[in-house]
TrEMBL record:
GO terms for cellular component: nucleus. Pfam families: Myb_DNA-binding. Its main location: nucleus. This is Transcription factor MYB1. Keywords: DNA-binding, Nucleus. Residues 10-62, 63-113 form the Myb-like domain. The gene is LOC107435925. GO terms for molecular function: DNA binding. It is found in: Nucleus.
DNA sequence: AATACCTGCAACCGCGACTAG
DNA sequence: ACTAGTCGCGGTTGCAGGTAT
């Protein structure tokens, strides 16, 4: 596959730090015309930069949704835990941290977390240690992360899952928004939804934003979910979880999976299906059980939206 | 005050994935 | 099925500012 040489090597193009004027031009252009078409953007906008450079500058610095300021201890803890699960998949990790960019997280990891914990041993991720302690216990050298590699399975069709209220009745007019969220790819749904769900911060907020509006209690639930996640779950299942925005999933869902084992089959028909290939039966069963296990978080979400 | 070293961050580079023709 | 163009990601580099000597 013939690939053109990097455009940054073209003669006459500016390189290095961006000037405020360049920032302004780029920002104004994107405000008017939107993101995308990076290759031709510099020419159209009148910038002497390569498209790649423009994209990077916008995504990592100029976007209005970017959160400034230091990484909070909560964010740090989340980064650590996600890294132990996903490895150096910074874009995916950034997808769980609204307003943070993959570059920022990557830099943070290299400069703070990895460095300060080099000599430490493998932490017990499943314990409820205080955040700072958990951070100190992490070591990039020592950790052999149980990295989850997501599969690029495209899902172009979604089934609305009827809302199940606490009374146990199904309410078709109250869909569980997080699950019924239109066409998606399981590879990185939070990234790929940009077009369907509006502009995001590095594609990080498309589905996450609504979820971030839920109460602090629910956010806490999501932390617990990650903290208590059982790494022995099947890899592809875990992968699917991180590619969907199941924030707020109950922390003890694994136990509930077993409890609700008997009710799995009845829910199978409600699950997401792929146009290209159906999920295999075990996936369906497991997912059905998970959804069946506790719908409180969906309730909260549904009411929020 | 001058210099060397360290740190954090922005930017660059190259590759693989994706898509359209 | 194949090719070419484009995009996105992860690794790496370079530099500015801070700190130590």
């Amino acid at each position: 596959m013939g690939r053109k040489p990097c455009c940054s090597k073209e003669a006459g193009l500016n390189r290095g730090a961006w000037s405020s004027m360049e920032d302004q031009i780029l920002t104004e252009y994107i405000k008017l015309h939107g993101e995308g078409k990076w290759r031709g953007l510099p020419q159209r906008a009148g910038l002497r930069r390569c498209g790649k450079s423009c994209r990077l500058r916008w995504l990592n610095y100029l976007r209005p949704t970017i959160k400034r300021g230091n990484i909070t201890p909560e964010e740090e803890d989340l980064i650590i835990r996600l890294h132990s699960l996903l490895g150096n998949r910074w874009a995916l990790i950034a997808g769980r941290l609204p307003g943070r960019t993959d570059n920022e997280i990557k830099n943070y990891w290299h400069t703070k977390i990895a460095k300060t914990t080099k000599a430490q041993q493998i932490p017990n991720v499943t314990t409820n240690q205080p955040i700072s302690e958990a951070a100190q216990l992490h070591s990039t050298e020592a950790i052999k992360p149980r990295v989850v590699r997501t599969k690029a399975t495209r899902c172009t069709k979604a089934v609305i899952i009827p809302f199940l209220a606490q009374d146990g009745l199904v309410h078709n007019n109250e869909p569980a928004a997080a699950v019924a969220a239109g066409p998606t790819t399981s590879r990185s749904s939070m990234v790929d939804h940009d077009d369907e769900y509006g502009k995001t911060s590095a594609g990080t907020e498309s589905l996450l934003s609504p979820l971030m509006m839920i109460s602090e209690k629910e956010n806490e639930m999501s932390c617990s979910f990650i903290r208590d996640f059982d790494f022995e779950l099947e890899e592809h299942l875990l992968s699917d979880f991180f590619n969907e925005d199941l924030v707020g999933f109950p922390s003890d869902f694994e136990n509930r999976v077993e409890i609700n084992d008997a009710s799995r089959k009845s829910e199978e028909k409600l699950l997401l299906t792929s146009e290209d290939e159906l999920l295999d039966c075990s996936d369906l069963q497991t997912m059905a059980a998970l959804i069946d296990s506790d719908l409180d978080w969906l309730q909260v979400l549904s009411k929020t939206l």
